[in-house]
Amino acid sequence: MIFTPKETLTEQEVKDGLNTVLKEGMTTEAMVTLAGGTFMVAFAIILGASNFQIGLLASLPTFTNIFQLLSVFLIRKYNNRRAVSVICCVLARIPMVLLGAMPFFFGDNAPVSLLLFFLFFYYFFGSVAGPSWNAWMKDLVPGDMLGAFFSKRSRYAQTLNVVLSIILAISIDYLRRHAPQYELYVYATMFMMAGIAGLAAVVLLARVPEPRSYLPNENILKMFVKPLRDKNFQRLLVFNSFWLFAVNIATPFFTVYMLKTLGLTLTYIIPLTILSQLSSIFTIGYWGKFADRYSNKTIISICAPLYVACVIAWCFVGIYTNLISNLALLAVIHIVSGSSNAGTNLALTNIGLKLAPSREAIVYLSVKNIITSVFSSLAPLIGGYLADYYTLRQLRVIAEWSGPNLQKTFRLLLLHEWNFLFLIGAVLTVVALQFLPRVREAGEVHKSVVKRIMRTSLRSNLRDYFVIDVLINWHSSLNNMLKSSRVSSDSGQQDN
């Protein structure tokens, strides 16, 4: 059979395969960026899509995850993950090329229903390819370098995403001002290029070797029930589902809040988004290294509370009308959330790979993706309902100072519409974290130990920077000064 797996792979084959996977990741990221959600929505609006159609467009990536069951069926029948991944990826990328070609045949009258038709198959075959790719990579990448490898792959991909997004945004904005009649065709060309880049990624993927896997000869329904009976994996599903639900109930509305409530333009929002991506790029390698050394669960227990703090901080954005103050707070939020999300997402992916038995990884990962996608898709719908509910409700917490020469009112907290939603999201993320300690991971180290080691590592890296060293050790220096002062005072009293 074509793409026949090998019983064993040599060290050189694994090394070459991993290098090819890195290149494939970059090419696939180019496709994802060119056909990005923001560009696709803008394209649909130009074609005259209704709000319902735009909502349907946004739901397709999550909805099609239920078809990951088909991936398990194909793997079980043919036991060839590379063939399933490659063939499904080809079938996914061709509709993107056809989607891009639509305006050249129909012009401005291209039907939105045809756009949704092509996108359905783009996401459908991508969903089928996903579990087979994940299980394939689990066996290809050595277990002790899962975190380091995928953090490196993600860092490269995000770097390309940032650079390409900036170029595309500037180009489209320039074209919209100077030649708006060509905007539709620019989007169409981008999507055709996305499909071509995706097909190029498939060529690279086909060159990656696959170690043979063995699936038990069981009833397929019994196979899907098995992960749900695995107590430890069950605990991971509960935490992962609850966490994604809590995160997605608020996160999709951050941009809406900045646009509608704060009145910020894309000139401010795009740099903030890039700032978050850069923070993720610079720290994901750090998280990957410590995840491999001390466990993924430990990284989650460190990064997740940082993200909770960021969600809470959103409640304080917009309290004052000063633009600079709001932008400064938003910058801090985006930097910290970018870093914490990088660690949390990397660790959640790796812990799923780690807890899934090698022979049944495809089944475990499919069950995990299907269940968590249900909660991920429900959260924004509930979040939108809650935002509407709190539209006419408001909570103000103020402090007043009254004196002979000064009377001042300070707004400490202002909750309305989106802020209520952010606070609810923060509370739910705190509740979700209560399920994390129940998950068991081999080799896990308590987070207090890892935090101490991370601080030591950071200090070691910064020891040549005097100012930073002073800032880190200022309390020790102050204590030493006070001790010296007391010793001098005591010796002076003894002399007297």
From TrEMBL:
Pfam families: MFS_1 (PF07690). Signal peptide: none annotated. InterPro entries: MFS, MFS_trans_sf, Sugar_transport-like. It comes from the Bacteria. Keywords: Membrane, Transmembrane, Transmembrane helix. The chain crosses the membrane at residues 30-50, 56-76, 83-106, 112-136, 156-172, 184-206, 236-259, 265-287, 299-321, 327-349, 361-387, 418-436. Gene3D superfamilies: MFS general substrate transporter like domains. GO terms for molecular function: transmembrane transporter activity. This is Major Facilitator Superfamily protein. It comes from Dyadobacter psychrophilus. The lineage of its organism: Bacteria, Pseudomonadati, Bacteroidota, Cytophagia, Cytophagales.
